[in-house]
Amino acid sequence: MCGILAEMGGRLEEAETFFEGATCVDPANVVAWTLFGLFYEGQENSIQTVMAFLEATKQQRAALVVTPPCRVETSVESPDLGEEEQEVVNCESLTIKPDVDGDTEASVVTGSQSCQDSKPGEGYKGGAEAEPSAMRHLATPTRLNTTIYMETVQFLLQNNALQMAQRALAQELLCPEGGLSSSYHLALARLQLLRAEYGSAESSLKEALHDSF
User: pTM here?
Assistant: First the structure.
């Protein structure tokens, strides 16, 4: 903000010092680099302008966090015993209780038969069947959803730096990723409202609604 105020007051060397200091204190700050570029653009220094904008774009892309593919940790624990040993344990766990009607033998036979009919590994879930779901990728790379100019415009409008905000919006129109989007029209409407240009602001808001739908 000191650099912006210095430029507005015509103290260009002081403004350049402030902008350069901002990029040195926080080299990864997208807004600082974009403001530096807008300052040079106002001084018609095209080389420094391009360099500052390129650095701002570089820092914006570097700030994107791409989550690496990850695996789902399943809570199913593998059995300590082998499949055949597990069957024997299950069969031995059947208790023989005397039946009042004398059907003890039949109940034992039924329990033994159920153990014989069961297939090895049938009671264990979450093995090979759970593997495909465990290998799913849960995250995708994040994509840019704004430009360096729109990010800077929000900062400028919040601080009523209208002249530089207008220059940032002009750069947004020239940007390949920008153009006449709903975000652009909304920012333009905010600028016009701050300038008390209510008729123009209404038109910009209508354009923003038209782009949204």
Answer: 0.62
